[in-house]
Amino acid sequence: MKIKRMTATFGALEGATLNLEEGLNLLQLPNEGGKSTWCAFLRAMFYGIPTRERDTRTTLAEKNRYQPWSGSPMAGEMLLTWGGRDLILRRFAKGASPFGGFQAVYADTGETVPGLTGENCGERLLGVGREVYQRSAFVGSPACPSTPILTWRSGSPPWSPPGRRTCPTPRRKRPSEAGSTAGSTTRPASSPAWRRRRRP
């Protein structure tokens, strides 16, 4: 399968078109330039958008996060080659589902592709379900867990509990721990007098 073109009204993208060439394609855009939105759009075109997902205290549900900023209905089209023929996939709003409508036709004849539905589109074209796709081909920044060594190099050792300083000052050894020296007197560890400096 080869993706040739994507057209999206999705999040910040308003009727935007992305043409893809042969080989590896890289998107080099500034922050908030649409890289993550295009990736999410690609996933939504293959697998749709979960309608049962709900907003949480920290994250918007996908159906709300990618509502077009312009207020237009969510819509997308993708031209791809599969099985030696060019196909056009379309998703659009249907009822209460922002991406519930689906259409798959042959680009040259406009005939419906038999057996390809909005529910099985991604699995038939890619050979894997949504969960496997998200864990392998679709890797976003939130999906990359922080490893202990990366956390340590960023200045917060993984063994340091939240709120505790990461590099504590070494504790001063008590005389009983350091060993006795000539002319010195060790005191019991329970006595606070060991903290006082001896007068000459």
Verbal overview:
This protein is α+β, with helices and mostly antiparallel strands and 200 residues long. The chain has a five-stranded antiparallel sheet with strand order 2-1-3-4-5. The protein is globular and about 95 Å long. The protein has helices at 35-47, 62-65, 121-126, 130-135, 148-153, 175-178, and strands at 2-10, 13-19, 75-82, 85-94, 97-106.
Give the biggest sheet.
5 strands, antiparallel
Order of helices and strands: EEHHEEEHHHH
According to DSSP, the number of beta strands is 5
How much of the sequence lies in strands comes to 15-25%
Radius of gyration: 30 Å
Distance between the termini: 87 Å
SSE class: alpha+beta
Which percent range fits the helix content? 10-25%
The 3D shape can be described as globular
Order of strands across the main sheet: 2-1-3-4-5
Question: How is the secondary structure organized here?
Answer:
Layout: E1 2-10, E2 13-19, H1 35-47, H2 62-65, E3 75-82, E4 85-94, E5 97-106, H3 121-126, H4 130-135, H5 148-153, H6 175-178
Antiparallel strand pairs: 1-2, 1-3, 3-4, 4-5
